[in-house]
Amino acid sequence: MSKPYYDAADLRKFGKITEWSEELGNKFFDYYGKVFEEGALTAREKSLIALAVAHTEQCPYCIDAYTKDSLQRGVTKEEMMEAIHVGAAIKSGATLVHGVQMMNKVNKLDG
Amino acid sequence: MATATKSLKKQGSDLAQSNKQIEILSNGIFQNGELPTFKNKISETSQFPLKAKKLEILQINVGYMCNQVCDHCHVDAGPDRKEIMTRDTMRQCLEVIKNTGAHTLDLTGGAPEMNPDFRWFVEEAAKAGIKDFIVRSNLTIIRANKKYYDLPEFFKKHNVHVVSSMPHWTRGKTDKQRGDGVFDKSIKALQELNAVGYGMPGSDLKLDLVYNPSGAFLPGDQAAMEKDFKKALMEDFGIEFHNLFAITNLPIARFLDYLIASENYEDYMYSLVEAYNPAAVKNVMCTNTLSISWDGYLFDCDFNQMLELPVNSKSKHISEFNEELLEGRNIVISQHCYGCTAGAGSSCQGVVA
């Protein structure tokens, strides 16, 4: 059986990306760390945003990471699911709002 | 996590044996070099061997019997555990309490209140005038039986500092870890403690809560969690408390059993090692604490007690307690110690770094 494209254990190796491009890798991780610090938003709120975006980006590593991070911050499963629905609503809304472009085109070509 | 009804010991589980637990913690990913052993890790910053400093906290485990069977329990406590401290051993402890330089006395269990000599011991120990006298109460014991209903008044009378477990401010997460109905009973008990003055702003009657995660993940920031707990418990139930201690679950006993059964063991150990904080090593609780078991033996901490790893000292039992001899001893370590050095560190008093 061939190996799957995604391996959950690879998430542990994320830091290794700096090995092949140290300066850029370090800059990214510095930035990443800073973004998730407590600021105008709490770290808990940021974790929920990250969880929602992890789903819209369909990144399995990010989903694992921010599900765990949310649990660590005391987020309940109901809150997590609601956050994902927010992501899903924007994602589907972004699809459907393009329907207006389709309608415009139909009206122009066949109106 | 499913809620158990019997201790691992009663179930006859292999993991009830401390040597089996130590074997698991020493083999696998730690034996094949995938992860560094705790000894190697603290050696990187020249912190091996860990040495005991001046004794500050005397923690006495008065028995493993408990009215609850919590999924994460490192004691493997429960109604079926019969290990109970006798009054004779308590007398030996009292001699030590009267003469020790320690500023804190910390009674734990099981549910310490279930020891038949608990009240006598508290009354006697309170006379020693120790600065901070803690009883670790699981809260539900206060509502478990009529004979315990007056515990809030009893604690108040002896100026006991109450430290209680509360895994979450929601019913679902609390009951999942500690059993059905635990949340409602705990809320009622907290309200009764508040009613006699415990946990109120400015009150000398200290009421602190202990938060430890309900699953295979580490606790979040203690200050942020405290803020969330205070807001939710006040808004939903009008409950006040002083401080929240965020404690990491150590991979021993029932929590180790859960980690293995749920296939989370390796990931959890990775999380602990990745979160290793050398600054937390300096203040780990074993350096200023002694743990005394129900039968009077001395350990570096309650976790080592459960793993049956005795102190590395000639003074091994309360009957031959020698504070000078114990100071400067080498602390006995294994991979479970990563639980106390992850992130901001963890101790029975919460974060340490």
TrEMBL record, chain A:
Residues 23-101 form the Carboxymuconolactone decarboxylase-like domain. One of its GO terms (molecular function) is peroxiredoxin activity. It comes from the Bacteria. Coiled coil: none annotated. This is 4-carboxymuconolactone decarboxylase. It comes from Winogradskyella endarachnes.
